[in-house]
Amino acid sequence: MTFGQKLQCGDNCDVDACGHTSLTWQVPHKLDRNDCCCGRTGHLNCFLSLGGLEPEYHAITQTCSDVKAVAAAANARDLVASSFLQVLDGRIGQTTAITINMFDPYVIIIA
């Protein structure tokens, strides 16, 4: 990220990393099993990364499936897989709202 024509880096040399931003509006029991590598709970990388989604799906269904298999099951009218992806859609919407609120842009284009 740049400010004043100068590249800004964080303490870990991460630029523009927002994975440790908390996902808002979470139900307390959802935070219990979503521990981040930093020791806190509720971060975006726990709810939106493959490393967070696949274990969550396993906890719900007791089956090991990658995201592509979950999407295929949802397309085959599997109600649990479809519901799981709807929850993911909501999380992506929440993340988009967080990003928009942080930057307060003049124009928003989602492609």
What does this structure look like?
There is one protein chain. This protein has helices at 28-31, 44-48, 50-61, 67-75, 79-103; strands at residues 2-3, 6-7. The longest helix is centred in the last third of the chain and has 25 residues, at 79-103. Helices cover 50% and strands 4% of the residues. With 111 residues, it is mainly alpha-helical.
Give me the secondary-structure topology.
Elements: E1 2-3, E2 6-7, H1 28-31, H2 44-48, H3 50-61, H4 67-75, H5 79-103
Antiparallel strand pairs: 1-2
Helix pairs in contact: 4-5
Task: Summarize it.
Helices cover 50% and strands 4% of the residues. The protein is mainly α. Strands 1-2 form a two-stranded antiparallel sheet.
Largest sheet: 2 strands, antiparallel
Q: How many beta-strand segments?
A: 2
Helix content: 40-55%
Strand content: under 5%
Give me the secondary-structure category: mainly alpha
Molecular shape: globular
Low-confidence stretches: none
How is the largest sheet built, in terms of strand order?
1-2
Number of alpha- plus pi-helical segments = 5
- H/E element sequence: EEHHHHH
Q: What is the overall pLDDT average?
A: 78
Radius of gyration: 16 Å
Cα distance spanning the termini: 21 Å
